[in-house]
Amino acid sequence: MQVVSARNITEHNQAQEAFRIRENSRRKQSQSLVELARSKTFQEGNLNAVLREITETAARTLLVERVGVWLYNEERSKIECIDLYDVKTKEHTFGNWLLKTNCPAYFQALEEERTIAAHDARNDTRTQELSESYLSVLGITSLLDAPIWLEGRLVGVVCHEHIGESRQWTLEEETFAGSIADFVTMAIEASERNFVQEALRQSEAQFRAIFERSSIGIGLIDMKAQIVDTNLALCEILGYSREDLYGKRFTDYISIERGDLKLYKQLMLGIRTDLKTTSRDDLQPSKHQEQLVERHRIEMERRCRHQNGGLVWTHISVSVIPGSNGEPEFFLAMIEDITERKQTELKLRASQEAAEAASRAKSEFLATMSHELRTPLNAIMGLSQLLQQEIVGSLNEKQNEYVSCIYSSGEHLLALINDILDLSKVEAGKEELLLSPLPVSDLCNYVIWTVRDRALEKGLQLTHEIHLEADICIADERHIKQMLLNLLTNAIKFTPVGQVSLVVKKVPQGITFTVSDTGIGIDSNHFQFLFEPFKQLDSQLNRQYEGTGLGLALTRKLARLHGGDVTVTSTLGKGSQFTLFLPNPVHPRDEGANFTLSSSSSLSSSSSIIPTNKTILLVEEEENTATVLQDYLHTIGYQVKWIDNGNDFLKQVQNLQPDLVFFDFQLAEDVRILNLLNILRQEPSWEDLPIVMMTFSEPLEEEISKLPGNVNDYLVKPIRIVQLESILIRYLS
């Protein structure tokens, strides 16, 4: 009897087969990862090529239809596909994107999970938001997504997309997907590293090219003053080859002056001190830190010894280059050959000194000759008047004609001498203004009556108009009459037919006297010559109209001496319009008394007209300008606080309660400082605080328009005391 035993091993075989499949799959995944790690594409650093290889490997290993790499945009508002591999078409595409706001659950899952293994992607709570717009359209049933992390930050995701029946992702497949995401991270890091290295190589190459091709000599010098490297320009300046200069002492080739060694020591000490200070400072850059670059450089003009024995004038700028530890390691010397410029400067200086000497001699001569010139003219004009009155006997018609001619010629000559002497005084800074409050109506009546006969002789209509607000002006009576007469006389002289008018208006900054005519007009190309002494616009005018060209030059200089100006608008053949502007009138404490304001900036001139015991806030970046203003304002009795930046401007205004602010226009160009001014103007207690900008030139209209409502007035640097006193009178009276 035989006993047969039978056992069902189907399950065992199935388990063995599943184990074999898993082992093959694991082996295949490991093999793929090893191949990626050894890939030469990674070493080349081309991100697009690496991503193509990664997506193809992942699709082939996991047997999925599509694998894509998606990265966040800069705003982190969406992820964008930068590479998508389709197994069926064997093509790589890019460009799709997914908004974060449309899929909040999916993006939240990316942040929280190592992988998103969605077997039924259309119903999985993490991925169902993608169903309608993406999964259903492409037939995707299962998703295996692995987030991409870079330096602890989520930057994107690798998506493995399965099409067909739902797929159960194994733990090994999830681990593999995470490894693929890690490879993408390494690819991004390698690409960024290669980009930085390439940029560094290019930067070094560009620096070397600039170093070699610079027209300015450049030398690198160690702490022992030995030359480490030079460019071709420095070799040409000194006449030596690079090999000759290498290792030599830099100071052997330049002239040393007393104090140079001290400068170098201060330069070294300064950088060490600043390093300690910087280490204690906050992260926000301070004004002190911004000035470190300037403090780490010295500039000087020195003569260098050429190889042929000659001397070369150079401008040398020496800077300190710190090492990795912050300690000084090299000196960088920039050397420019300024021999030609120096020779030109010496010639110009000699010419300037000669011109100044001639100008002084002219002024002294004119001042000395004033009495001698006026005395005989006074006699000529006085005696001719006596003859006209027939005190010593009657004259016949011809004799009367001769005497009248003598008198008018003397009067013309005297006016010419007065103009020359006045112009000379103004240019020499010796003209004094006897300022007093003057009724505008009296001034206009006087000048109109004076030129009336000349206008009538030519048949011109002469009119004047005074606005009601323009009743008083502060000016030197003789000089304002002189200015108005010059403008009216010129208008009548150059107007053959028509009319001449004088209109006086009150403007916010002061008062204007506008003389208009319907005369020959002026070409705009000739405006630049109008106010130059002894110039008429062309030879034809010189022959047709008498004159020396002094009137307008003197008028503008006198106007500016008052703190005002003269401007012109004109159309050739239609007429001209000259406007004399004088600052706002201010009544002195004693209206019956005159007071003196000298163009030589006498301190006593302001004491009788400017109220003191006021506080002024001076915001000025440049120290020399601030020192001059601060010293002068202190001298005439003001309390002055100076700050060299606008950072604590509002705090100073609150503490000082100033009556006037002088503000450097360059500081106001900073948007932060401009915001401070706007904030100040929004405070009711400070909306009327006078703010005066200080500029290097007349501000353009577009520059002024940037400061609406902030600025009351401006001063042009270098600031003249006359203009400064005009501002003080205007706003602190």
TrEMBL record:
<keyword id="KW-0067">ATP-binding</keyword>
<keyword id="KW-0418">Kinase</keyword>
<keyword id="KW-0597">Phosphoprotein</keyword>
<dbReference type="Pfam" id="PF02518">
    <property type="entry name" value="HATPase_c"/>
</dbReference>
<dbReference type="Pfam" id="PF00512">
    <property type="entry name" value="HisKA"/>
</dbReference>
<dbReference type="GO" id="GO:0005524">
    <property type="term" value="F:ATP binding"/>
</dbReference>
<keyword id="KW-0902">Two-component regulatory system</keyword>
<feature type="domain" description="PAC">
    <location>
        <begin position="298"/>
        <end position="350"/>
    </location>
</feature>
<keyword id="KW-0547">Nucleotide-binding</keyword>
<dbReference type="InterPro" id="IPR001610">
    <property type="entry name" value="PAC"/>
</dbReference>
<dbReference type="InterPro" id="IPR004358">
    <property type="entry name" value="Sig_transdc_His_kin-like_C"/>
</dbReference>
<dbReference type="GO" id="GO:0000155">
    <property type="term" value="F:phosphorelay sensor kinase activity"/>
</dbReference>
<dbReference type="InterPro" id="IPR036097">
    <property type="entry name" value="HisK_dim/P_sf"/>
</dbReference>
<keyword id="KW-1003">Cell membrane</keyword>
<dbReference type="InterPro" id="IPR003018">
    <property type="entry name" value="GAF"/>
</dbReference>
<feature type="modified residue" description="4-aspartylphosphate">
    <location>
        <position position="664"/>
    </location>
</feature>
<feature type="domain" description="PAS">
    <location>
        <begin position="203"/>
        <end position="257"/>
    </location>
</feature>
<keyword id="KW-0472">Membrane</keyword>
<dbReference type="InterPro" id="IPR011006">
    <property type="entry name" value="CheY-like_superfamily"/>
</dbReference>
<dbReference type="InterPro" id="IPR035965">
    <property type="entry name" value="PAS-like_dom_sf"/>
</dbReference>
<feature type="domain" description="Response regulatory">
    <location>
        <begin position="615"/>
        <end position="732"/>
    </location>
</feature>
<dbReference type="Pfam" id="PF13426">
    <property type="entry name" value="PAS_9"/>
</dbReference>
<keyword id="KW-0808">Transferase</keyword>
<dbReference type="GO" id="GO:0005886">
    <property type="term" value="C:plasma membrane"/>
</dbReference>
<dbReference type="Pfam" id="PF00072">
    <property type="entry name" value="Response_reg"/>
</dbReference>
<dbReference type="Pfam" id="PF01590">
    <property type="entry name" value="GAF"/>
</dbReference>
<dbReference type="InterPro" id="IPR003661">
    <property type="entry name" value="HisK_dim/P_dom"/>
</dbReference>
<dbReference type="InterPro" id="IPR000700">
    <property type="entry name" value="PAS-assoc_C"/>
</dbReference>
<dbReference type="GO" id="GO:0009927">
    <property type="term" value="F:histidine phosphotransfer kinase activity"/>
</dbReference>
<dbReference type="InterPro" id="IPR003594">
    <property type="entry name" value="HATPase_dom"/>
</dbReference>
<protein>
    <recommendedName>
        <fullName>histidine kinase</fullName>
        <ecNumber>2.7.13.3</ecNumber>
    </recommendedName>
</protein>
<dbReference type="InterPro" id="IPR001789">
    <property type="entry name" value="Sig_transdc_resp-reg_receiver"/>
</dbReference>
<dbReference type="InterPro" id="IPR036890">
    <property type="entry name" value="HATPase_C_sf"/>
</dbReference>
<dbReference type="InterPro" id="IPR000014">
    <property type="entry name" value="PAS"/>
</dbReference>
<feature type="domain" description="Histidine kinase">
    <location>
        <begin position="368"/>
        <end position="586"/>
    </location>
</feature>
<dbReference type="InterPro" id="IPR029016">
    <property type="entry name" value="GAF-like_dom_sf"/>
</dbReference>
<dbReference type="InterPro" id="IPR005467">
    <property type="entry name" value="His_kinase_dom"/>
</dbReference>
